[in-house]
Amino acid sequence: MKLLHKVAVIIFSLAIIVAVIFASIIYMLTLSSLKEAISTEQVEVARQTMDKIDRLLYERMNNIIAISEDEEFEGFLAGKDLTILSEKAESTTKLRELSSVTGPWDALNLVNKEGEIVLSASGRFIGQNIKEELIKHINFDDVFNGEVRYSDVLIDSRTKKPTMIFASPIRNEEDVKQPVIGMAIGYLSWPVILEILQSTHDNTVELFNKNGQEIGDNESENASEILSNSFISHPSVKKALSGVSGSEVRKGIDKNKDKDQLISFVPQKGFLINKGNGWGLIIETPVAIAFADATQNALNMVLIVIPVVFMAAIAVLFVLQKVFIKPVINLTNSAQALSKGDFSKRIDVTSRDEIGMLGTSFNEMMTKLKDYQESLEQKVTERTKQLEDAQVLQVKQLEETERINKLLVGRELKMVELKKQIATLKKKS
Predict the structure, then answer these.
(1) CATH classification of the domain holding 280
(2) CA-closest candidate to residue 95, choices 20, 43, 12, 170
(3) Least crowded by CB within 10 Å, which of 126, 281, 351, 421?
(4) Within a domain: residue 333?
(5) Domain final residue, candidates 167, 189, 211
(6) Sheet holding 260-267, edge to edge
(7) How far is CA 198 from CA 192, 203, 204, 216, in A?
């Protein structure tokens, strides 16, 4: 396997490992962050909803105070002849108008010190004594001591509807001591509270009193369900009623008790003179719905991260191929050429790092080897010429020796022949 292929396999293997680890971390961190943001946002929605309710109750308190300070009603209770039909009719008309302007109210009455209804916006229940009802739900004596009071949620015995009672003392301003001579009593029309709860459509919104009883939600207007059951044992309800705000994932309340919900809870804080009744508000959203966008966004982040990691791996491979692998391949090719006796190969040096220094050293070595080769070849040529010259000389010497030898041999033959002739002459003589 070539070096480039090996490096590519290593880099992309590491890229896969890094992508898996990094994508997992990004997914978990993104999902956790988005879940926290969604939870915080739902808590804020719950807080704003509770704030709207508190401000509404504050407005109703101001409304009932304004009615109790109306001079006409003060004069009506201060001793005007209640048998005068015109006076009574005018006050009733004004009270009815105020009921529409400041309400809606289920009932708006003026009550005397004995607890009898002396004037009603609806014109009904005149003369009825409601002192016991007022003692039960608000502190009747405190109102006649000059304090503004309001009740918790209750079921009106007459209308069988949920309501709240607001009471403000009416004083005789013409008397120096300004004694309390009666009170303005307003019965809150509970649907105005339900309308605030129903302004949130995508979640289950529930309102609980201090006893953990549900007093309203955004899914039902059935008055028979209000104050019917207590959910004080549910951890989220308990936290809301203890003054804690937050979100948690757990089984839902009542209708959602079998499914995991993102539950956000806030306590009632009140607004200015409205100190609240210790209520708690809960918003429930199925986990699959609440965190669907968070999961999708986290996956989208992963889908962005993975290509980025592989693009980075390709970039690293490209840089390594350019800076490291290509010089190594060139060095290898030059070394192979060197092994075959080719000293002409050179490495293109483009950097001053160790690879560049190695290339420079290799080029210098190749130059020296080539110079050495050329020098060696020159010496070999010269030596060869010397050897050839010596060989030629030796051949000439051999030839001369052979010639001399031939001459000597010829002389010897002639001497032998001469000796034979001398010997023959001696024999003849």
Answers:
(1) 3.30.450.20
(2) 170
(3) 421
(4) no
(5) 189
(6) 214-217, 204-208, 280-286, 260-267, 246-251
(7) 10, 10, 9, 10
Same domain, 86 and 180: yes
Which residue bears the tokens 């009140």?
Answer: 270
In this structure, the answer to whether residues 209 and 285 fall within a common structural domain is yes
In Å, how far from its chain's centre is CA 72? 61
Regarding whether 153 and 236 lie in a shared domain, the answer is no
Q: How far apart are the C-alpha atoms of 374 and 380, rounded to whole Å?
A: 10
By DSSP bridging, strand 204-208 and strand 280-286 are: antiparallel
Q: What is the pTM of this model?
A: 0.68
Encoding tokens for residue 219? Answer: 């899914």
- pLDDT score recorded for residue 166: 92
Q: Choose the final residue of a domain: 127, 162, 189.
A: 189
Is residue 99 within 8 Å of 67, Cβ to Cβ? no
Query: What domain range includes position 353?
Result: 343-429
* Eight-state DSSP code of residue 271: B
- Residue 365, in any domain of the structure: yes
Q: What is the DSSP letter of 138?
A: S
- The tokens for 251 are 């089984």
Q: Does 159 share its domain with 210?
A: no
For residue 213, give the DSSP letter: B
Q: Where are the alpha helices (DSSP H) in 69-139?
A: 71-77, 85-102, 131-137
Q: 272: left (phi > 0), else alpha (psi -120 to 50), else beta?
A: left
3-class secondary structure, 227: coil
The closest of 28, 24, 38, 37 to 287, measured between CA atoms, is 38
* Same domain (yes/no): 413, 378: yes
Tell me the CA end-to-end span of the chain in Å, nearest whole number.
106
Q: Considering its fold, how many domains does the chain have in total?
A: 3
**Alpha-carbon Rg for the chain in angstroms:** 57
Q: Domain for residue 120, yes or no?
A: yes
Output the six-digit token pair for 249: 């994932």
Task: Say if CB 209 and CB 153 are below 8 A apart.
Answer: yes
- CA separation (Å) from 321 to 306, 351, 354, 427? 22, 14, 15, 108
